[in-house]
Amino acid sequence: MKLIAKWLLSAAALLAVAHLYSGVEVRSFGAAMIAAFLVGLLNTIVRPLLVVLTLPVTVLTLGLFLFVINALMFWSAASVLDGFHVQGFWAALIGSLLYTLLGMVIDSALERLFSKK
């Protein structure tokens, strides 16, 4: 149940990012659901591999290169899907930052909601 709630709220967060920032476009809630799934899948499978491969650069930049990796995951998801569009790297960077912040709020709310007392 928590996973489905997180997926739906992540899709809503993606729609909120598209509403807040003009560099990110999402056509519908269905497209947002598919995009949220793909971004989550890329962050689960590809991102850890990229973090390990770019570890020297990440250490050299004091962790700031992780923002670039997040933007690349966001941008690559948009390049694969039709209903989700990002206008360039800088739009992907800003969009991924907003999406990450909203995701942190969602995670915190779901943790409180589904916490075992």
Automatic annotation (TrEMBL):
<feature type="transmembrane region" description="Helical">
    <location>
        <begin position="28"/>
        <end position="46"/>
    </location>
</feature>
<dbReference type="InterPro" id="IPR007165">
    <property type="entry name" value="Phage_holin_4_2"/>
</dbReference>
<keyword id="KW-0472">Membrane</keyword>
<feature type="transmembrane region" description="Helical">
    <location>
        <begin position="89"/>
        <end position="110"/>
    </location>
</feature>
<feature type="transmembrane region" description="Helical">
    <location>
        <begin position="53"/>
        <end position="77"/>
    </location>
</feature>
<keyword id="KW-0812">Transmembrane</keyword>
<keyword id="KW-1133">Transmembrane helix</keyword>
<dbReference type="Pfam" id="PF04020">
    <property type="entry name" value="Phage_holin_4_2"/>
</dbReference>
<protein>
    <recommendedName>
        <fullName>Phage holin family protein</fullName>
    </recommendedName>
</protein>
